[in-house]
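Appendix B: complex inputs.
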Amino acid sequence: MAEDMFVDRLLSAIEKKRSHVVVGLDPDAAALPPTLRVKHGLEQGDADVAAVVGCYREFLSGIMESVEPEVVGVKIQIAYFEALGNSGYRLYEEMTAAAAHLGLVVIADVKRGDIGSTAEAYARAHLDHAGADAVTVNPYFGTDGLEPFFRRVRDAGKGVFVLVKTSNPSSSELQDLRLETGATVYEAVADSVNAWGKAVIGESGYSSVGAVVGGTHPDQGAALRTRMPTVPFLVPGYGAQGAQACDLAALFDSSGTGAVVNSARAILYAYKKTDADWAVAARAEAAQMRSALWAAAGRA
Amino acid sequence: MAEDMFVDRLLSAIEKKRSHVVVGLDPDAAALPPTLRVKHGLEQGDADVAAVVGCYREFLSGIMESVEPEVVGVKIQIAYFEALGNSGYRLYEEMTAAAAHLGLVVIADVKRGDIGSTAEAYARAHLDHAGADAVTVNPYFGTDGLEPFFRRVRDAGKGVFVLVKTSNPSSSELQDLRLETGATVYEAVADSVNAWGKAVIGESGYSSVGAVVGGTHPDQGAALRTRMPTVPFLVPGYGAQGAQACDLAALFDSSGTGAVVNSARAILYAYKKTDADWAVAARAEAAQMRSALWAAAGRA
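Resulting structure:
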């Protein structure tokens, strides 16, 4: 077992920063601040990929430096980087390193899932090569498709967040199907995550195997908190997707910890609702979210 | 609806090539032919990523040119490219283009799945930017996470293979859970895939929304063929994972079509079992697989 466990680093960061906030890096060229778009030539119709990458780099670096005091980490949504092709993928690796350099916990939101030999390649890509602290993974393949990630949890101080209940409207189609046992599919996945996590409990009493639990389903989230008492939650769905701080109170434990909450668009593009500079606006939004969640967790 | 539908191109290629074979591009540096390893300096302990990429490029290009007459297409397993970081990702894009240039059907085996806005970015990355003909996707998020892929099926002649029943040993853990309806989870997913596919049936009578059905579960595969009569199958698990041609007979329809079968390691590394050159050995193995499957499909 690695002496330095992911979950202990994550929960220490919550206490140190007095924050449950993770900022989502979901860059969207059309939503970038006009000053940056002009500077990088994106206002011309024929802007090339290199210009977009340059604009993303300046924007995301500025966001991370600005919000760092308010957040425990970043969740890097790799899809928005892949959408730019290989130079976008290179920027994903660069931003992963930049976030780590700022002392932020780095969650690579890759949602990979495959058979064992392929999962080993994905684990190498994101936990070894890109150097993320943790990744999100999909449970559809079962244990052998997750074992390469779990090995790095045990041996290299890495973390994993398994999709349990996602934040999107259609999440109920498969995840809420009821089994003959009376449980739903996502509850069965939750029980597996809880069991997988028992082998990697840190000094904090929590496991380095976590769960993705969407903030858009408050009642289901509260029940999952009870069902997986030692599993840390990564909670998407805050802000632009509709979840508010008061909806999330039950996702924290009685000590006001055990969960981090992601917000991307509401922080990244906060400049749209103010006259402030984009980096200043992002920090103000992150600070407001930090306070609201700290109160919702019963810590204020 | 695009006039040129993916499924019609796929099934035409089966008839033209008299083959159901898809070669899986799963490059593994340790398994590459010794002559190539020496040429690219991989036998020295400190070979860098650029050397591995160069070796993969020569090997995969040679494999594709050699096996082209025997196979309908390629399944590019992106994980093995991501494992090399951004220069590996660039090679994935390059190999996608090279396969298309050879007239092969290109299936990007990316198994992505996420909420709608993120799925849009993944669809852009792999169907638009990388230019694959089809991708594999994960059903855990439900319809809204698949819609960006389906839109490109409808409007751009692309294809999608949804994971239904995977080939790995642990696939039963989640996929075989029994619902209160009496169906299993994977059967419920199959019913969804069948329904999604109805909107995009081609002239062949098959849909451009396909299913991944592992060849390692012959009885379940046969039942799925009946359950999804208009859904084309992408069948992994042949060769190194244990499935043989005779196990797969029931995955084809009564006309001996409706499925393509992937083999990676057994073709790529066929040189290990012969004295022949690696490219020649790969073609011989692909030809043997082609004949065995053609017979299993009742076409010989």
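The mean pLDDT of chain A is 96.
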